[in-house]
Write a structure and sequence with these properties.
The complex is a heterodimer.
Chain A (H helix, E strand, L loop, with lengths): L5 H13 L3 H4 L10 E6 L14 H10 L4 E3 L5 E3 L2 E8 L2 E6 L13 H12 L9 H6 E8 L2 E6 L6 H7 L6 H12 L9 E7 L3 E6 L12 E6 L3 H9 L5 E2 L4 H8 L4 E15 L10 H10 L2 H8 L4 E3 L22 H10 L7 E7 L8 H13 L4 E7 L1 H9 L5 E6 L7 H6 L12 H12 L3 H18 L2 E14 L2 E3 L13 E3 L1
Parallel strand pairs in A: 1-10, 1-11, 14-15, 14-16
Antiparallel strand pairs in A: 2-3, 4-5, 5-7, 6-7, 8-9, 9-10, 11-17, 12-16, 12-17, 13-17, 18-19
Chain B lengths: L3 H28 L3 H5 L6 H10 L6 H13 L13 H36 L4 H15 L2 H15 L11 H31 L2 H8 L4 H38 L5 H10 L3 H29 L7
The chains are: A alpha+beta, B mainly alpha.
Chain lengths: 510, 307
């Protein structure tokens, strides 16, 4: 008898070892079909508890299942969602009338109790929710007036309440939550939204089913599938092949290809805001406003946007964004003008320039090409005599150095909330962080902006703040990224809300 | 039979290495700075920082912390993942079968391709077969897995539409990632087999076999190949280790739900308990595979035991 070769034995051993594993891993294949909306993002979702989440990609799923009180539209106005109407009773009290006839996916009725239960959970300090800081800081009490009317009392005048309720505070069902507990609640979500939860296979896909009883009408797609595909090339390939209907986070260099593709198109949305922060407290030259203005004149931001970012960004001229109340559209960005920069440096006594360090976090997920941008900034500043040493650091180390106030110049990415005044309050108000910038004048302006309850006064306070920060230049103002989404041409989308969170109900097949 | 003392010594070695891994994993999160600051968002208050420091035991002396960590690891407790707020070890173990499946399939492919290819190029030394095989081997070793993966997607998924571009769930999803991952070790194993065969084919007993008038097939496969397979077993065992490493990249490119992808996303999210658990599991797998190879080797070649 012929002896079996050890080669065959080895291969057989390897294959036999693989067999018992295979069944555990088998699952239904994901494929874009007519009645399914399949979207792909770069990371898997983190949790299904909407109050324990701060991750934008996770919100792409949660926002289909849970609803908020209000939503900000592209028209710049707040639209009713679970709240039908609202009014300001006094400086610290808001009254919300609730939508009637709304039910959670398990049949539980949506009433004022659900609103109180939700906001109490978010404002609770004993078991702090991850998405609760603004609730803990601002909400004093929630009072149920009748089953369809609720009063929200704030600790101080809080004009950003509607912005907060647009960004956060998805309403959860109290009876359901209490009967199953928070552990199960985080696995079996139950909201009022257009899609109900079906399954989550980690790192593979999340599946949602249309809620036939949705108060806003039955959604066009019967199924919603969220797939995490980390590599951009694979995401683009899946879209081109029609395996998915929509791919997020398209890198700038792939945009052209999808724009000219036979079956694909590209839509852009506002993304993160990128600044170079300056230590205006400890670095002597940067204490001088003229020097900070000079740096703003010396950096050719338009060239960076065009050449480094492939046009996928919009210039900024202050810490305020278009869309914030009081944004002054007449203010222009600093002109690229090296001569003017040199003059300003000379006036401040730095005609010969100075030395400074710029820290760049590398591999920071979410911000595009910071290293390339950093290198361009270094060469631009060199032309006016400012010698910048580029220091590449790991993102985790960057956070530590930021808090330890060890940065001289550093990149700052602000994302998510571009409607409220939080960026001013957190980055430039001396009583919150005040790590690298403190100014009594800024404090007064921010306090005024953050407490003005009447729209007219808030508008005025916003304009004053905008003009001041434009002039005082606490940062080198860079740009707001444009986040690119790739879509199949067969997918129609009429965006109503102003948001990075995509609503499946806004999509149709055509 | 392999003597018990040999087995005992290898197992003791392995246990020592596992303890070493535990200590390294313990230190790793201290290398990039204060772990407490790293775990919290940038706007955490001093109060939050102190609270977390206490709850994680980071206010204790280092040797106490290390001992506690070893105790916990011994019971399989790596703490809760910061990002998922769930015990870290089950998150890793859930994905382990996917990675093992991918690695074993890749290794089977590379063994199946590499051994005939190596034999062929040794037997027909300096022929165009040899050059072609060596070119493929060189290509496999010098192309980064990342690039191989992208090329496979571009050609076999987008252009020819034979396989899905990424994801998991069916056998067809497994093919491209396994080929991408297997290609790298194919190169190394082919060269090893070729080298071994060339050496063996020049030996006296091969000449004797030929002189007896045995068919060339029999000489090559029964006498020569069997004798050069010993180092191949070792290399294939070690390749399983580097394949686990390569799986990190492959899993990212093909969106394969394995441990490698979990490690990468945990590192980006600064989820240190999860990184610790995953690194420990992968390192432990590597060590255990080595143990298995050592023991297998001793079974196949009795000389090894007395070395």
């Amino acid at each position: 008898m012929k002896k079996r070769s050890p080669v065959v034995l080895l291969v057989v051993l390897l294959l036999v070892a693989a067999v018992p594993i295979a069944p555990a891993w088998r699952a239904a294949p994901a494929r874009a079909a007519g009645n399914t909306l399949t979207v792909a993002f770069s990371t898997d979702i983190v949790t299904l508890d909407p109050h324990q989440n701060t991750d934008l990609n996770t919100m792409q799923v949660l926002v289909q299942v849970y609803e908020h009180m209000v939503a900000l539209g592209r028209d710049g106005k707040f639209h009713p969602v679970l709240a039908e109407s609202w009014e300001i009773v006094d400086d610290r009290t808001w009254k919300f009338k609730l939508r009637r006839g709304v039910r959670f996916h398990n049949g539980e009725e949506f009433t004022a109790d659900a609103v109180k239960f939700t906001f109490d959970r978010l404002a609770d300090t004993r078991d702090p929710m991850r998405s609760g800081p603004s609730f803990r800081q601002n909400i004093a009490e929630v009072v149920v007036q009748d089953p369809h009317t609720v009063l929200v009392k704030t600790k101080a005048p809080y004009p950003d309440l509607l912005a907060l309720l647009h960004l956060s505070g998805p309403i959860i069902p109290p009876k359901y939550f209490q009967s199953i507990g928070k552990e199960r609640f985080a696995r079996e979500p139950n909201g009022t939204g257009p899609y109900r939860f079906a399954s989550w296979k980690r790192d593979v896909q999340v599946t949602l089913q249309a809620n036939a009883g949705y108060w806003g009408g039955k959604p066009a797609f019967g199924e919603f599938v969220y797939r995490p595909i980390p590599e951009a090339t694979a995401r683009v390939a899946a879209l081109v092949k029609g395996e998915i209907d929509l791919a997020a986070d398209i890198p700038a260099e792939r945009v052209k290809e999808l724009e000219s593709g036979r079956n694909t198109r590209v839509v852009t949305q506002p993304g993160q805001q990128i600044y170079i922060g300056l230590d205006t407290l400890k670095v002597e030259p940067l204490r001088d406003r003229r020097v900070r203005q000079a740096l703003n004149h010396a950096v050719d931001v338009e060239a960076i946007v065009r050449d480094v970012l492939g046009g996928q960004a919009v210039r900024l001229n202050s810490p305020m964004f278009p869309g914030m109340i009081g944004y002054d559209a007449t203010l222009r960005p600093y002109a690229y003008d090296p001569e003017r920069a040199k003059q300003l440096l000379a006036q401040a006594g730095y005609a010969g320039g100075f030395n400074v360090t710029l820290d760049v976090p590398v591999g920071y997920q979410g911000a595009m090409k910071l290293k390339d941008v950093g290198e361009t900034v270094v060469s631009d500043l060199k032309k006016v005599g400012v010698n910048v040493k580029l220091n590449l650091i790991e993102p985790a180390a960057a956070t530590e150095r930021y808090q330890a106030k060890q940065f001289q110049m550093y990149f700052y990415a602000w994302g998510g909330d571009i409607v409220s005044g939080r960026i001013l309050e957190i980055l430039l108000f001396s009583k919150t962080r005040g790590y690298y910038y403190q100014s009594p004048e800024a404090d007064t302006l921010i306090a005024a902006y953050q407490s003005a309850m009447s729209p007219r006064r808030r508008e005025e306070a916003g304009r004053a703040a905008h003009r001041f920060f434009h002039e005082d230049a606490p940062f080198i103002f860079l740009y707001q990224e444009r986040a690119s989404l790739g879509l199949l041409k067969s997918l129609a989308w009429e965006p109503i809300l102003s948001d990075q969170r995509l609503r499946a109900v806004e999509f149709r097949n055509q | 039979m392999v003597p018990w003392w040999y087995v005992g010594r290898r197992v003791a070695h392995t246990a020592l290495i596992l303890i070493g891994i535990t200590v390294v994993v313990f230190w790793v999160i201290r290398l990039s700075g204060d772990p407490v600051l790293l775990m919290l968002p940038a706007d955490a208050s001093q109060q939050d920082i102190e609270r977390l420091r206490q709850s994680l035991g980071f206010d204790q002396p280092v040797h106490v912390q290390l001992w506690r960590f070893v105790e916990r690891v011994a019971t399989g407790d790596f703490g809760k993942s910061l990002r998922f707020q769930e015990p870290a070890l089950p998150l890793v173990l859930d994905r382990l079968p996917n990675t093992v499946l991918l690695a074993l399939t890749a290794l089977s492919i590379s063994t199946l391709v590499a051994i005939p290819l190596g034999v062929l190029s040794a037997v027909r030394r300096n022929s165009s077969w040899d050059y072609a095989a060596m070119f493929v081997a060189l290509l496999g070793q010098s192309m980064p897995i990342f690039w191989t993966g992208i090329m496979l997607i571009t050609v076999f998924s987008v252009a020819l539409d034979l396989f899905p571009s990424s994801g998991s769930g069916t056998f067809r999803h497994l093919v491209l990632p396994a080929v991408a991952l297997g290609f790298f070790s194919t190169g190394r194993v082919t060269r090893l087999v070729r080298g071994g065969m060339l050496e063996v084919l020049g030996q006296d007993y091969v000449r004797t076999a030929r002189a007896k008038g045995l068919a060339e097939r029999g000489v090559v496969y029964r006498h020569a190949l069997r004798n050069c397979l010993l180092p191949v077993i070792t290399i294939v065992g070690l390749e399983l280790g580097s394949t686990l490493g390569g799986a990190v990249v492959t899993e990212m490119v093909f969106a394969w739900p394995g441990v490698g992808r979990l490690i990468v996303s945990a590192i980006f999210a600064r989820d240190y308990p999860l990184v610790q658990a995953a690194v420990f599991v992968v390192a432990a797998m590597f060590v255990l595979v080595n143990l298995a190879v050592d023991l297998l080797y001793a079974v196949v070649d009795p000389r090894v035991r007395y070395a």
